């Protein structure tokens, strides 16, 4: 069974990383998380009886510690999901992110299965799966650069996004392919994969380059540095120790450079670093005010405008916001509380400690396997400090984390050890046979996963069609048909506030003001703190000339976004329209108190 589970996890990681469903409103994250959830539950169903029968042996020692940590993490996550006001969003995640409880539950299952079923021999399947996925992703990136990619997406970013939807995600994933290909090319035992690694290496390097994602280049440096240090330790311990000092020095200089300090700042500092700082400070404010439970799972975007500081508003502009802290630990703490973030952090630190300790004490063969696992896993952790938990990359963090624990705790490789029969049996008996009911449980778990995941996918498909339906002012039926299609799509996933909000967006573009107000109200019935829906409602009333009705909605947008001078300008216009001169004067004073140099001041003075 070890081999089958290992192949299943490797296949799941590879396929999920590359998956896109072009018929969905979100063709990237939704597709990947769907496969991750379905695959993880199916594999757990297949392994469940074996785990139950061998639980005492499987969860002995340090494995038990990690098992308890993962269970505790998921338990806290579930409790906070249930108690979040937007429980649907907490369960499934924000549309476009798919980082809700159900996806993290799948990550936890993948980690446990990887920890229990991977070993020296079958780790090859995980590496092969990642290499194949990296190769395909690299080829698609090249096709995209040449304009030959089969699935044309709207050009939002400057760099290539490959099959990942975002240049940063593409650069991050393809950087893993670079590190892995380089290791295979220099490793004597992976002969069958050398040709593919040789093809993938230059393509992946070019893919990282065309993505224009700095984090991809940094990940390559981290991964290659780990491989180089391990090679030095294998040659001679003193060489390895000597290599650690300059590596740490370069690392510190690099970190300072990314913060616009020191000689590397010209190359490493980007405006996005300042943006990350804004997001981190906002997350910190959320944590300070809500340390135990956070603001609610996947509610960072809902509360971002309330918790951001004046520095962010002045630097980036009042209309710039984010739905993610772009740091996994901070995001979990801000949305789920300090305990949730600390439990995740404990899992990560635990994997690092166990892996590095085993690496330093292991033989050359084990050192090589652990080394490549760490060289792939550590760059992902670095990415997790500055980016979001994108499924294509993040799933490999959990796979490799489990692998590191599995290999670290396995004493000897089959090829070099002279084990007694008893120990050999222990090594192979972990699920060596498949229970007759395993396929039945697999099917049941797959059906269970479908019961959770199919309806949101249907809604995504329906909404993609409805959102882009055209209307014609000369043919009123076209607007009625579109509104009906939007409502039907909303009802496919009735708990999701995103869909009526997007309906308001689409209808606003069509200049259908009453219909926009109705859609915004449907969203607000689900989440009264949805700033975007209040904005659409206020703006639709204003466009329709109903300024008296617009003012309450506009005041709500200000309550939920107190530093937004652009919104205050719109309120001032409404107050002028209804003759509220006292309110207008108060609004002008409010803008001046926020930013005496606000770009809205000339327009305010003209009212």
UniProtKB/TrEMBL annotation:
Keyword line: Membrane, Transmembrane, Transmembrane helix
Location of this chain's protein in the cell: Membrane
Membrane topology (UniProt): Multi-pass membrane protein
GO CC entries: membrane
TM region(s), chain numbering: 29-52, 64-81, 101-118, 125-143, 163-183, 240-261, 328-356, 368-386, 392-409, 430-452
Domain O-antigen ligase-related: 203-345
Listed name of the protein: Unannotated protein
């Amino acid at each position: 069974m070890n081999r089958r589970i290992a192949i299943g996890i490797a296949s799941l990681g590879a396929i999920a990383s590359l998956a896109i469903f072009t018929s969905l409103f979100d063709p990237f994250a939704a597709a990947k998380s769907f496969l991750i959830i379905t695959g993880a539950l199916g594999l757990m169903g297949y392994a469940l009886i074996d785990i139950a029968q061998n639980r005492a042996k499987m969860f002995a020692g340090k494995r038990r510690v990690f098992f308890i940590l993962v269970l505790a993490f998921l338990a806290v996550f579930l409790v906070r999901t249930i108690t979040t006001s937007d429980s649907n969003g907490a369960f499934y995640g924000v549309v476009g992110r798919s980082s809700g409880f159900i996806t993290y539950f799948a990550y936890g299952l993948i980690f446990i299965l990887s920890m229990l079923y991977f070993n020296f021999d079958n780790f090859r399947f995980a590496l092969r799966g990642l290499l194949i996925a990296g190769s395909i992703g690299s080829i698609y990136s090249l096709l995209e650069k040449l304009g030959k990619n089969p699935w044309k997406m709207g050009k939002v970013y400057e760099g290539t996004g490959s099959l990942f939807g975002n240049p940063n995600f593409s650069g991050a994933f393809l950087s893993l392919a670079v590190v892995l290909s380089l290791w295979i090319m220099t490793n004597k035992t992976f002969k069958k994969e050398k040709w593919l690694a040789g093809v993938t290496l230059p393509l992946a390097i070019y893919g990282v380059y065309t993505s224009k994602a700095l984090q991809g280049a940094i990940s390559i440096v981290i991964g290659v540095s780990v491989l180089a240090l391990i090679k030095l330790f294998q040659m001679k311990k003193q060489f390895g120790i000597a290599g650690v000092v300059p590596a740490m020095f370069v690392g510190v200089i690099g970190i300072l450079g990314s913060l616009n300090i020191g000689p590397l700042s010209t190359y490493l500092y980007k405006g996005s670093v300042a943006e990350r700082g804004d997001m981190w400070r906002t997350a910190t404010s959320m944590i300070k005010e809500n340390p135990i439970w956070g603001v609610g799972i996947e509610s960072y975007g809902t509360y971002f405008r309330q918790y951001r500081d004046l520095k962010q508003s002045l630097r980036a502009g009042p209309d710039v916001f984010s739905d993610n802290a772009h740091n996994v630990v901070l995001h979990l703490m801000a949305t789920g509380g300090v305990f949730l973030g600390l439990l995740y952090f404990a899992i990560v630190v635990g994997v690092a400690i166990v892996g590095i300790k085993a690496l330093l004490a292991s033989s050359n063969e084990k050192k090589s396997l652990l080394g490549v696992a760490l060289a792939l896993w550590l760059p992902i952790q670095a990415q997790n400090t500055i980016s979001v938990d994108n499924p294509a990359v993040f799933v490999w963090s959990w796979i490799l984390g489990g692998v590191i624990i599995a290999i670290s705790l396995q004493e000897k490789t089959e090829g070099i050890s002279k084990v007694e029969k008893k120990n050999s049996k222990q090594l192979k008996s972990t699920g060596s046979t498949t229970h007759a009911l395993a396929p039945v449980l697999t099917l049941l778990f797959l059906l269970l996963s479908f019961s959770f995941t199919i309806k949101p996918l249907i809604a995504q498909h329906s909404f993609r069609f409805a959102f882009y339906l055209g209307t014609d002012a000369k043919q009123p039926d076209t607007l009625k048909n579109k509104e009906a299609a939007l409502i039907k799509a909303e009802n496919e996933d009735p708990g999701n506030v995103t869909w009526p909000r997007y309906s308001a967006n689409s209808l606003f573009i069509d200049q259908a003001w009453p219909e926009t107000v109705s859609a915004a109200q449907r969203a607000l019935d689900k989440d009264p703190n949805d700033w975007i829906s209040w904005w659409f409602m206020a703006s639709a009333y204003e466009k329709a000339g109903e300024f008296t009705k617009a003012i309450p909605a506009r005041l709500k947008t200000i309550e939920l976004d107190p530093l937004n001078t652009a919104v205050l300008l719109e309120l001032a216009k409404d107050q002028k329209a209804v003759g509220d001169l006292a309110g207008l004067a108060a609004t002008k004073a409010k803008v001046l108190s926020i930013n005496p140099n606000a770009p809205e001041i000339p327009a305010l003075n003209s009212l």
